[in-house]
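Example with several molecule types.
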Amino acid sequence: MADAPICELKAVQKSFDRGGGNMLRVLEDINLDIRPNEVLCLIGPSGCGKSTILRILAGLIDPTKGDVRYHGSKLDALNPGVSIVFQGFALYPWMTVEENVRTVLRAKGMPEEEVRSRADRAITLVGLEGFEEAYPRELSGGMKQRVGMARALSVDPEILFMDEPFSQVDALTAEGLRAEILDIWEDAERNPSSILMVSHDIKEVVYMADRIAVLSANPGRVRTIVDNPLPRPRDMRSPEFLRLVDQLHDIITSTELPDIQVSTVEPSLVPDMIEPLPNSQSTDILGLMEYLETQGGSSELFQVVAATHVPFEKVLASVKAAEMLDLVDTPKRMVLLTPLGTRFIRAGMEERKEIWKERLLDLKLFRVIRDMLEFHEGKLTREEVLAEIHSRLPMENPELTFETLVAWGRFGELFAYREERGVLTPE
Amino acid sequence: MIHHLLDTVWGQATALMYPIKRRRWVDLLVLLAGCAILYGLVVMGRQWTGQHRPMVEIDLSPLSLPKYTFFSMMRGLAAYAFSLVFTLVYAFWAAKDRRAEKLLIPLLDILQSIPVLGFMPGLVLALVAMFPHSNLGLELAAVVMIFTGQAWNMTFSLYHSLKSVPQDMQEAATVYGFSWWQRFKWVELPYGTTGLVWNSMMSMAGGWFFLMITEAFKLGDKDFRLPGLGSYMSVAVEQGNVPAMVYAILAMVIMIVFLDQVLWRPVVVWAQRFRVEETSQAEAPRSWLLKLIRRSRLIRWLEARRAHLVAGAYPPKPLPAGRPERRMSPRLRGGRWVANLALATLTVISILTAFKLLGFLHTIPVARWWDLLKAGGLTLSRVLISTFIGTLWAVPAGLAIGLSPRLSKILQPVVQVAASFPAPMLFPVVIAALAAFGVGLNYGCILLMLLGTQWYILFNVIAGAMAIPGDLREAATSFRLSRWQRMKALYLPAIFPYLVTGWVTAAGGAWNASIVAEYAEIKGQVVSTWGLGSTVSAAAYHKDLPMLAAGVMLMSTLVVVFNRLVWKPCYKLASTRYSLTK
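Resulting structure tokens for the full complex:
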């Protein structure tokens, strides 16, 4: 009994209707369980459906296929043992700190005295005494998230769900909040028994989690589940800690940059195969290459993350993008400038754009769009392009791909786009 | 400015009295105000249920004006109460029921475009028939007519707010198990309050627009008249009594300022807490009355009692014992049935009304239709010209006021009062003046429309100018842009979204105004010029129902089509290209 999971997902699949009968599959065959007395973290690149998994487990949305189980029985409604700490806090700005907490207790139908005493206890627990009468707009991000935590803890949840809880909180405050939430959780006598946290910060995940589910995107799948045996309290600077961080980096990188060398530029064997575009701006790619140039043309992936303070998944997207354009190469964890990349970064703006344009036309998607432009006499509507993207890249979010396509195409002076008219024209 | 002045005067008065009376006088004031309201209501109740007199004699002495003003104000407030209830129910229904939404929103669009006169004959005849022995029917008809000038705007505002509640706020409500009622009162209604308050102020002003018609009108051979400020003005105009006209205009201004100070200021200040945006405002609105009320011990005591009662009124419901809650409770499914029934009823009524209308329209010969269309085109061009002229002067003036904190502080309240003042009350005076200069109503009515609508443009331009971010203005200064360059590169694009809102309101107001601007009765003589507005007016006065139906329908069609073809693209352009928030 002790190890029977509190909550489970069995073969869960989820598709969203993107309008016009287009279904975008975001989750594929997810199996996951939350056990008593553990911290489970979900990590993965953007678009892997981490938040969707959390919402399905909470019963906020239904899976398209598969089961959600709570203590062994099938759940087709709100999960009664769960409360959520939201990324954007989700506090009601017209209520004071105290009212925000009391309101959720009143919604449970508790008598007024209990509402008050429980709210007081929760507010004390997260260190908000003295702020009871403050409105959320008067508080900093960290304090707001404390209110979110007090509210979530006040209802005495069996599992505490946290959806990227510290991504809108400054780094120092986040460090403190993490330790505090673990302190509250470690009290075995009291709820929450378990914590489910969604995050994109590898260090945060290694610090918090007992088990780490690594997801991959398009559609979202559980790539692997890594156990974290490090004893608590954990030291973020200890060698074992850093080793686990590196190991996780490798796992995520290998799921995202499989060692198929895209850099050998050969027309692919299947003529209609199109590579999805990583969602990265040309300025980010330029920035990455400028950085590599200062490092003598090569650097370790995580070195880039650490040195530039750019979130890991953003760096990863830029690296993928640069590799697609044949500007960098990624043997293992290294990122190095190709000869073309070196020429590119040392060139002036004119030549850079020339190279960029040439590389773009090496990508099938851009050739398709260019041909379509010719065919439609130099005018393409956004809808036409979206439809094309959707038919060729059914697993991708067409709007995001379109955004990237436009951004890259503009930089390469391949085509121009007027947003208010929604028309793509050749430059 | 008035508010500011009162604030200082009151502030000093309070400071003087504080040591002597220890604030007890505030309580006395609250009590007195309560008694006054009670007395007024009793008088009004007597008038409402009194013997049926279709036409009361209006006493033109200024001494009876306070009573008439009070009656009119109460009608406006009663209509507002109706509007508020209607808004809460209709907007909630439209926002929550996907199927009903498809009927409710277009219906609201149509209702919004129908001028008050279109509702008048049906309403009056039906309600008077319902209460043949008392004044209640006629009073109700007047209230409902004011309601038709208020409600639609508010409903749209709340509907849009309900549809745009941030997703995480909704999810939090779901996770913590709010019932639909708790969600409405703790999340959705607070989120919509700011918009609702501003639109309430606008709507209240809109409701006064036809005050003269709603209180005194002819329907065929019958002359209806209710005691009130509007009928006072009508009688004064009929008799050509200039001093009485001036008194009535003054009374109207006083009523507007009074409502602003006593009702809207406190409400706006109170609604501050429902602001969603994070940035603190440069200058928060203040209200001397709210400050006063918050000092009253009597009110504090009443509030404490109320809180006590409320806490006792909800018996604690048993805690859910670990069982998963259904996302849709059985009670809500019961509500589903009610909603379906209501939707079916509404659909049947809409279809019946449409048939009835078709029956009316059938009797109108084709040649008359052709005339109507030409009249519509003529009035449309008048509406556009008046909007154009309004823009021409209101943009520079609005920019000058909005960009100068000193000017805007002084002039904004004045503009607010001017915008709330029902322009038709000024029409007789202006028509007389125009006649003296030899200008006919054909062109003169453009000026009349302008009187009613320019304020909307000015008001919005001021708001837009005040919202231009400081850094953009600083950039323009540092690059030494000339006045004209600054206008072209910064000011005009930045105020464009506000200007579009101003245009839409102004054009809508101008259509409404055309009904009274193209057709007036002064000293028993009809002064009119050809146009759709005068056609509608004449049809109403001669009880020519088919013609009235045709005219009103054509007008609302023109308004709706114009909205679709011109204003909607403008809005889209404003929100994509000229939006400063994204």
